[in-house]
Amino acid sequence: MKKLLLTACLLTGSLFIYAQKDTGKTKVMMLPPQVQVSGTIVYVPAIKVFERPNYQGRSASFTKDATGKFIFPFPVQHVSIRIPDSLILYIKTCFEFASENAYTSSLADISLETLCGIRTDVKAHLRVTLNGISTSVHNNDCLRFAGDINVRVLETSPDETAVESQMRWTVIERGAARVTTGPFMFPIFTGSASVLSDSRYAIELNKGFVFNNNPVPQLTEQGHYGSRIMQNSTNVFIVGRSALQSGRVKVWVKTDLTSSHKNCNLCDDFSANVKMAEPGFASIPFNKTYDGGKVVDAAHPYVVLGPYPAHGSRAGFAITASNGVDKDFRVHLKVNAE
């Protein structure tokens, strides 16, 4: 008796479905006619395009003609797309330059007029956590930090004309299973400038978060998580499973910090504007070596960024520190797949 088996497989970083027919002697692999394969671009038939917004009207699959152009039985200025919950859909567009967007949920209204490529991947998750900041600490004033540390996660496509997609971060609501999808840039640290000079802000909030960097600490656990200043110190980004495995995912970090300083409790060299000379930028690939042998993976999730030089002028009249104060800031992250 003939059997028809449906099986899901991973090929070149994309999910596809094939039918396997048991003839009794040999097994013949048969791709359904809806599946379009072009190099590393593989399409899942479960993804449907509807001719009108909000999944109304006729539906069609992504198909190509003999010249490789995508064809649809209706105009594509305002269409909608159903995407299975387990998948990421990557839509590549070509106008003056090629670009790619990653979509993690269904699209109620989109234009496909410049469509030139499509692929899928299975959803995975990458968590980025701020473990703390290290600098030279002389007294409690040195524990005050303001500014921003922003994180993005980028994913490079696997085809020959590689382009990057920005991946969305999520917010997991406490006490609920629902996950909401946020934008691309995540503010992993945001501190108001008022904490630098206003004594009403409790320095205790930063203890366990700002560390003395002599020697530079190799942090292995998050410090004082849950305090007001640390509420946004961790989040999860949705990424492609095969992209994680093949080293095509990287964490992009922009750091722009200002700190306070006082050399001792009785010193007169207080400064509330020890600011980085310029923003610091870092790009950290996951599961791929960089900078001459560094690697961030499951066995090595901890990252130290910097040192970022900072300079500040004394506040008001002071005998000491007439030339101001110079410090270095380091940012400590943990990056791990979930």
Task: Jot down its keywords.
338 residues, mainly beta, 15-stranded mixed β-sheet, 4-stranded antiparallel β-sheet, 1 helix, 26 strands, 1% helix, 51% strand
Describe this structure in words.
- The chain is an all-beta fold.
- It contains 1 helix and 26 strands.
- A hairpin with a 5-residue loop joins strand 8 and strand 9.
- Residues 1-41 and 224-231 have low confidence and may be disordered.
Rg of Cα set: 26 Å
Q: Pick out the low-confidence regions.
A: 1-41, 224-231
Q: State mean pLDDT (0 to 100 scale).
A: 79
Task: Classify the beta-strand content into a percent band.
Answer: over 45%
| Class derived from helix and strand content | mainly beta
Number of DSSP E strands: 26
User: Secondary-structure element order, as H and E?
Assistant: EEEEEEEEEEEEEEEEEEEEEHEEEEE
Task: Give the distance, in angstroms, between the N- and C-terminal Cα atoms.
Answer: 43 Å
Helix content: under 10%
Global outline: elongated
Quaternary organization? single chain
Write a brief structural summary.
The chain has one helix spanning about 240-245, and strands spanning about 5-10, 15-20, 25-30, 35-40, 40, 50, 55-60, 65, 70, 80, 85-95, 100-105, 105-110, 115-135, 145-155, 165, 170, 180, 185-190, 210, 235-240, 250-260, 270-275, 280-285, 300-310, 325-335. With about 350 residues, the chain is mostly beta strands. The longest helix has 5 residues, at about 240-245.
Q: Secondary structure elements and their pairing?
A:
Elements (H helix, E strand, L loop, with lengths): L2 E9 L2 E9 L4 E4 L6 E2 L2 E2 L5 E5 L3 E5 L2 E2 L5 E2 L7 E4 L4 E8 L3 E6 L3 E4 L4 E21 L9 E12 L7 E4 L1 E4 L6 E3 L4 E6 L18 E3 L21 E7 H5 L3 E13 L9 E6 L3 E7 L15 E11 L12 E13 L1
